[in-house]
Fold:
Amino acid sequence: MKPSFFSRISETSGKISFYSLLLFLVAFPLSVSASQILAGLSIFCFIFSPKENFQKIKSYLLPWGFILGAYSLVFISSLYHWEEYSNFWKTFTRQSEAGDFWLSILFPIAAVHSSEEKNRKLIYKYLWISFLLILISGIASVFSEYRLGKYISNGFTPAPGDRRQHPAGPLFGFETYLPIGLMNTHLTYGGLISFYIPGLTLLVLQKIREKDLKRTVGFGALLLLALWVFLLNQSKSAWLGVLAVTVYFILSKWKDFSGKFPKITIGRVSILIVLLIALGGTVRFFYQKNWLLQRTLAQLTEIQTPENQRYWIYKLSLPLLAENPVLGTGGGRFKETSSEVSKTFIEKNEQLWYELYITPNKHAHNDILEFAIVGGWLSGILWIGFFYLLFRKIADSSLKEGNFPLVGIGFIWVAGFFQCYLLDDEVALPFFALAGLLWGREKETSSKFSIASTIFLTITLLLNTSFWIWRLSIPAELAYGRQVFASSSPLAKKIERRILPFRNQTEEREKRISEIISVSASEGNSEFSLEGCLTHRYPNPAKLREEDYSFGIYISPNWINPPSKINVTVFSEESFDEDKLYWSHRKYDLGTKELDLKPGWNSFVWKETMGLSKITIFPDIVFFRSFKIRFEGFNPEKQMDLPVLDLGDLCDFKL
Structure:
């Protein structure tokens, strides 16, 4: 019997939905707009696909229900706070987290398409194409001064005002930059390549186990290239996420791996040692050539850095969670509500104004925390429930020939402790699609309680929570530190220890004063710069500062070789917003003054020399008054005792 007109349309719609999904896999590494259009087309056509597809979708309603539940609670919270929105629908449609719920619709649709055996070969091929596009575009962006996405869309010409790439240092005579592929940010690109690196790692291990030398070398070469780009990408949160999910899968499949690798022989061990030495030497070489990588690794243990401002973000986030535990603050209101919290910090310590101003406050930089704040505790718990099912599925997934391992999608769990990847459309959309592909091709082997998944989620969540409980227990006055630029990083660290915190931290101030820190003669005679204070005072609109700028220099009578002179150059430095942190800022000297230093406290005072606006909207026409300092008059044959510096609370030193 000839198929009816409607059944033909239904079959055609199903095919269009599937092929749109395949093209989506090719598009998301290249274009955000194209990938969203193809995702929308796949969803739309699926609505008119055969009825059998809607029967199959029932198998994926449980995990999808957790996702939709989390988004729905944000919507309910938004309705509850209706009167607090200046323009509800505008804020909700443009800024609310619940508005992204449509991205998750691709999850069950991808699962249905992936569940059909006849589709999997094509899906496998397109996954490889997707990965190669991400890798190639990433490598190309390493050597591109311009952001490739905008550069290509502008006809291979830089548009005026476009931000350029972040320089990473020279390599073999070529200038290199942070790889971002065709994306707008390095964090987005780091998220995309993270989907594939764990799977590629497992393929290499699988080929080693199967003694397939040809594919081991081929996959290994791709893995090394991907890891090189990934390392240069500087996404520390993605690094942790990839490491965590890879370890989780290997441990959950330990029985499949153990005892099945080639036997240990002297020759194989020798080859492994040579490879490890070569790999270690390569990593060391790239580390020495890349100043951004050096800075990134050095900042891992610091609270306050230009990029790592999680301390301040969470300090502003947790009060919101405590005040609105059940229904949350409402979608799209994180920035507004966290700004209210920041006022209490600034009113207590005005020097924190600039620090909190440049701290990104559009979201909580933590996926679970973000949804718990805007949608209530239950919204965050529902996301935890989804990840429980995801890691149960990852643990049950197999390494069959012709299947690209998609375990990498689990990186978002740990990486999401430090970055809101679920709010990044460029990452969230492929995440839902790839999660659906994994769910569809892996038949449910067991619906029993997963101990491995529970242990993994619990341990990682407790480790992260414990770490931040410890970090956030540090008072804001001690977490804040004025930026110091010196001839070397070790010298800058020593100078930071000689700068006293705010006056209310009496115990720490006394401790630092009593310390003896010595530096070499060459370091002691080198100039360093110290962040000062703003020319205008809080609140906004800001009024011109009327007090003189001052700081104290303490010389202990018991020191052996302190300096007897200090040379201070006051310089003006532009204030700037969070989008310009990597740019050079216009600086110019305002005046130089030399002081003789005597034992005890010495005072440096500087009066404003420029005519500035009496009232302005921060940060417009607001500048820093900072200091270049050089110590003199000490015995160059011995180490110099480094003086203590006290800028008070706001460059207002008082004896």
